[in-house]
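Q: What changes when S-adenosylmethionine is included in the input?
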Amino acid sequence: MRLDVFTLIPHAFAWLCEQRPVATVLGGELELRLFSYRDTTPLRAAQIDDQPYGGGAGMLLRVDVVAAALDAVYGGPPDHRVVALTPKGRQLDQALVEELAGEQCLTLLSSRFEGFDERIVTNLASDAVSVGPYVLSGGELPAMVLVDAIARLLPGALGSDASSRHESFSAAFEGGLEHPHFTRPASFRGWAVPEVLLSGDHGRIDEWRREQTRLRSAP
Ligand SMILES: C[S@@+](CC[C@H](N)C(=O)[O-])C[C@H]1O[C@@H](n2cnc3c(N)ncnc32)[C@H](O)[C@@H]1O
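A: The predicted holo structure follows.
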């Protein structure tokens, strides 16, 4: 899959690229390209934002700047999905991550300031996605959330470890929350690991985990 991220802060993604699972799939199942709006802006002095018509606080990312960035990379409107990251968008959940991870190519547009000129969302993007009902200062963290969540679903991202696969797929796609996990020590400050997990009886353990998952998922 090819993921293109348009941002004002490409270097913010360096950390993400060094971490699993993104680092694991980079150069293989995942091609991640980072583009700065400033590199292709048609405006002088690397300008990319402007004051809102009608007045109001803050600056907006300009539509001509984003169009120029897309033209420079794709030679015109891309023929794949373009996601504008905005708090007003469709709220991200695992089903949407899975849907987007199924794309061959995907473009993410992030903004800062007071956000996008609305024409970016309505005319240049195919989707508007929010990572949650709160407002962040920029689209870089939302873009990283999406890149990480998508990378986890790509082949080989989590290795062949069955537990990783279980973590990745079952809880999220079954719409529930996972059962609780424990590791050593078996008792700490009097907080004991449930006896069943120490029993070695995998039938009982599976049954207990299913029940815990069911209890956590109950409305
Ligand atoms: C300060 S916010 C803009 C807030 C603006 N008033 C609005 O409602 O779009 C700046 C940028 O951060 C990104 N952003 C902030 N919160 C987000 C969220 N919950 N989901 C996705 N992107 C978000 C978007 O790219 C947004 O344009």
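Observations recorded in class: The chain has a mean pLDDT of 92.
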